[in-house]
Amino acid sequence: MNVFINNQKQLLGLLLLITLVCRCAPEPDYRTTRKGPSDSDLMLQDAATIKENLALLDKTLKGYQEGVYLKNWTYDPVTNNITFGKNEDKEARNEAINHKLGLGFTDYIAKENKKTLKYQAVSPFANMEDVGLYGQPLLLNGVPFSGVLVGTHIASEKRILEARFYEGKRLGTFNVWTNLERLYTKSFQEKNVIAIDRETLRKPIIYLYPETAQDINVKVHFKGELTHTYPKYNASTGWNVSANPDGMLTEKTSGKAFSYLFWEGQSSFQYTLDKGFVVAGEQVADFLDEKLALMGLNRREATDFVSYWLPELEKNDFNLIHFSTEEYVQNAALEITPAPETLIRVFMVYKPLKTAVDIPTQELKKMSRKGYTVVEWGGKKASEYLN
Hints:
The chain is α+β, with helices and mostly antiparallel strands. Helix content is 21%, strand content 31%. Helix 4 packs antiparallel against helix 5 (299-313).
């Protein structure tokens, strides 16, 4: 009996010790306690799924608890990272972990002149169409944020910001309230439904034609993620090749020969389809031959382009085709050393159509080659979310 009592006392003492240790353990840091995927973290694979996830994020937004927000957070505009420590409000931290990120602002992020009603974004949070929150993924303590972001003006306790993110990229619309308590939508609504576009930039390939054999360095400054490159692209040094006038390239590192440089990538950049051409699938080949020649591609390059895109385009009843050269340059700048005398970049955005539609015709500029020439072509299928 004494042995049983002693064992029972030892067991109770052990349980008491475990309880005390658990109570005294330091509070876990946010970095190590991020929960598994919630409803807002579902994969966005197609238009239907994107719509479904937008609905889930809207539901999460409605479930956000007013007055719960971080007060001592910091934002780094270079890395686009929001950080906060474990000394922050516990409830606000828990909400952030559960994909409801509340941020308290000491001042309004957007202001208006009472007389002119002229809008001014005084914070990158009020202008997500620009670089920063829109141009690169939003991080929360170094982790891409998925969920809803709600900004609150601390002094008035009024909501001044609503936004939705998936893996750090903005999804859907966002709302900003100014110091006059007006919802500002004018400039944002030009692209009022912006979804994560899983359709990649397809097969941009770069041809180099120096007048004499020389070494050339090529860098791609792409506002997105490079998914495939050949030869292998070095993010720091780019491609270093020896190029011949006939276009044949030799990579300096491996010594291998290539006909061109190839890359593909993904980004959330939205291309405008306000002008273009509506082309029947059976007429695509002749259409492309004509337009590519006008834009400066030779027969070899045009053949490469048409043979790649024809199987995808001719199966559609109609195609809305737009050549997005200017927007493409904004999204994927090229740095070429030495610089070419002639640079031709052709980027096609297309949308399959069941029936023909009326759209203003796009005017294309005739291009001519002169001296050392670089040519690039690529394309993509348009996002499902277009105005």
